[in-house]
Fold this protein.
Amino acid sequence: MNTLWFLQILQDLPLVLIGSVLIVSIALTIIGLAKHRVQNGYKGHVFSTFTIDENFASLDYFQEGFRYRFLPVLLMYAFSHIWRSADWYYRATQPYAGMSEAAPATQNLLLDYPSNLPVLVTIKAVKNHHWRVAFYSALSLASSAPPIVAAGIFTVTSIGTHLIVSIQEVRFWASFSIIILYLFCLIGVRPPPRYRLPRRITSINDVFSYCYQSRLLDDIGVDGKAVFSAQDIGEGKDHLEARIHLAKKEYQFGLYLGKDGRRHMGFDVSSRDNGREQVTKFYEGCGFRNGQLLSPEWSIFCRKPRVEKTSV
């Protein structure tokens, strides 16, 4: 599932660590509420009091500012990065997920989520019933607010030789609710099998690596011209999309039969006009040998791919 190098945070270990931090944060907050320490912090009493050493006054201010202002913001920002990563991940992989089964180009090749603005992405994804893209795009856009809210949870004031820390009630409950929401959202952020790709996609070359041996670019449309090639200087995106629509073909991701007569990992037209199957569906965790899919090996937690040959 390394589709983009900066999205490694969506792998299992980082997600488990982040989930653990969320659970610990919620647990500590509940303990504070049970002991009425939090309530005392915003009911006119002080949450904590620290004595300032006259020789280290600046250091004392820095320590308490770091603990009560910087750390909550840092945690919220780290959590927000998950949703930004998920947003870009699902934008990039939705076209390939749409080819897990044979489907028309409107569900895969013609999707332009990565190049759209966040709000437009959410609207388009809802119309196309791509709920993961819509949800995490909206969540990514909204995730800029929690760090701002978290910055004002604690108020540090100086009275004589003491630093007094109090809690802002509204900001506290807002942040606590956000953390609980994040924990539930974290459960579904792990990419399902159809959203995982064997190679990362960082450039147009990576896209072509999935179809370099396919007959996709040689397909002829109803007008007798190549479907995926502009024919005149004045032709633009609309002309290309219209030609793809008129071709009425379905596309699928899997092991396609290349021009060299061998199977390659990528996408192509699911079947040709002669009815011959062009693409063999690839099941995650399965090996491939001599034109036949091999059953997967299972570990305790998930299927493990069995590699039989370096090429197919």
User: Anything to note?
Assistant: Residues 210-281 form one domain. Residues 57-97 form the longest helix (41 residues).
